[in-house]
Amino acid sequence: MSLTGDKRSRLLLYVYRGLLGLLILSGLVFICGTIYGVFFHKNLPSREKPAASRKGGEEGQLFTGIGTIRASTADTQPAMVILFVTFIYYPEDKAFSEELALRVKDFKQIIIDYFSSSPVSELRGLDEEIIKTELLFRFNSILRLGKIETMYLGDYIIIG
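The chain above was modelled as a monomer; its predicted structure follows.
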């Protein structure tokens, strides 16, 4: 059963129009989704907890600039500690926000020094709250323009 030239060209025209309609519909869905996402949807990064609020109504955000840290322990056969440190800060405080950004390298070194001075047996026996308290104390000891109030440890794993 073969199609004549007229029927074949009509069929190709319908296919072309159908594909063009799908392309236009896809473009409209993409544009509308983008507009909705930009103007109406509150985006929260996947690793972040909801923002905290100060008494004055300022919105706090999580500082994730330190990233994932890998540190060796103080054992003869060192284990690897992997963790992701975040803490709440208030971006309205520009001076403190800038100090935090400038201290990222120091924060990383504090974390590495803390874990590399402890053996695995000691670290496994410590509660996560004790580790957070010690790191928080060490972070705040180098900060001059403000203090970190709350710290979170994500992906805290000891391998080895």
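Residues 1-43 form one domain.
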